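Researcher: Quick one. two chains, 570 residues in total.
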Amino acid sequence: MKKNKFINDLLFFYIPLILLIAFAIFPYLWTFLTSIKPERELYTSVLRYLPAEPTLENYVTLFSKSNFFKNMWNSLLVAGVTSIISLFVSVLAAYAFARFNFKGKTFFLGSFLLINMFPPVLLLTPLFTIMRKLGLLYTPFSLMIAYSTFTIPFSVWLLTGYIRDLPVSLEEAAMVDGCSRLEAFIRITLPLTIPGIVATGIYIFITAWNEFIFALMFTNEATRTLPVALQTFIGQFEIQWGLLTAGGVVTTIPVVVLFMLIQKKLVEGLTAGAVKG
Amino acid sequence: MQKHWSKLIPYILVAPAFILMLLVVGYPILNSIYMSFLDYTLFKPKDIKFVGLANYLKVLSDPIFRESLLNTVLWVVFGVFFQFLFGLILALLLNRKFKGRGIVRSVILIPWVTPGVLIGLMWRWMYDGNYGVINDILSKLHIIDNFIPWLSSSDTSMASVIITIIWQGIPFFAIMLLAGLQAIPQELYESAYVDGAGSWHTFWHITLPMLKPTILISTLLRIIWVANSVDVIYIMTGGGPGYSTHTLSVYTYIKAQKALDFGYSATLAIYLTVMLASVAFVYFKNLNLKEVR
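Model:
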């Protein structure tokens, strides 16, 4: 009986779990291994899985021979400013949705969600034309404006949940003590919402950091962000896979680290809607 | 006076977000509809003219559009179905307590935050016809005899990019469904056991029905997301070889980004939007909204 259970567990639990985890992780592992192989080990007739002589030469070339530092700075600037703008307007809206009952509340909430469903390619050509007319094309501002707006719906959704979970009584007590509504918000609610604000901010940052299709059209050589820079390597170097995978590793590590910090909160926010409705 | 003022507060708070949405999303949507009636190519700014429904008619007789439409159906149906299937299996596995579950749960989500460009690059390298690891593994397992140029042959290109999008979407489903599983009251299972129900029986009669709202919402979100996705295909194949991996989104993007044919691109985008809206509509009509709540 006991042995039976063990075989059962092995077949229906451990083996499928390990296979799925291996499938999820393998591409990253392979990318990393490629990035630390010297070029002569990449293009061999018999594939080597582990590098014989691991090296950082791809990373050195990446930073010394391309504009990767500049691209990184551009990404950081765009994602950072986007997070600030989007957070600012989202916190205000979320506070209204969480704490007030007002005419048209459902309309506003609904339109926020609906607008999120439109295909990004629908916005591409008009936004390009608008940005050009405003003289913002090929400046970081075009991406900051676009990303700030695209991230509003999910940010408002997350933040409304956090604020709603805070007890109203604290604010009310402060207002009884003579605080104005604004003071109560700034001194009581805002500090308590900080964990939620940080999680939402990181979500916005990751989205802006990763975005590619708008960035490809809205930037030029001087303002290129990391995903676009990676893509341009394809043509520029006849696909040097060592360099490309190194670039990929450098681009992804910050995002993964940030994500690990907020993983739990983000998942709670994401699933709350689908489960509770 | 004080009272009137305080009634305005929520509107003032919502205004900045709402105005940004109107300017950066709302207005461009209308602008897109307008552009779809124009013959508007970016590098011929003097030749912009109103052409009525000409773009819409041109789409209907466009063979690339037909191929893209078929590819979109394959991409969405196979992509989302297998994401769901493997996501469900993973969620069921993760619903059990075991050592290291927390770590597995966070690691498994990484594809969800990986830039689409990197996903495309990683898989393009693994699929490489000469030095790719996938060919190497498959030939060592004696599944294939000769190396296959997965992405540069139109017989295998579409299937290959679909496998990549399946890989990308499994974590999303797994996490959504896991949350759904954990919300099912444990008593239901206990009373079923008392009644002598087996694990298949409880799965079909308790787990799946209880999971239905989560399944419906997450598949709809995923269908929309997958149909709209451009970057993975764009990086892996650029829509090729030929038009074999053109989906509607990719076709729309290439028309705008490479051909700079803004009028036609806008028209294609509107076709895509209408199709997605119809899918969403059918979904909501067949799905009792009360059930979801």
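Residues 111 and 153 of chain A are 9 Å apart (CA to CA).
Researcher: Thanks, that's what I needed.
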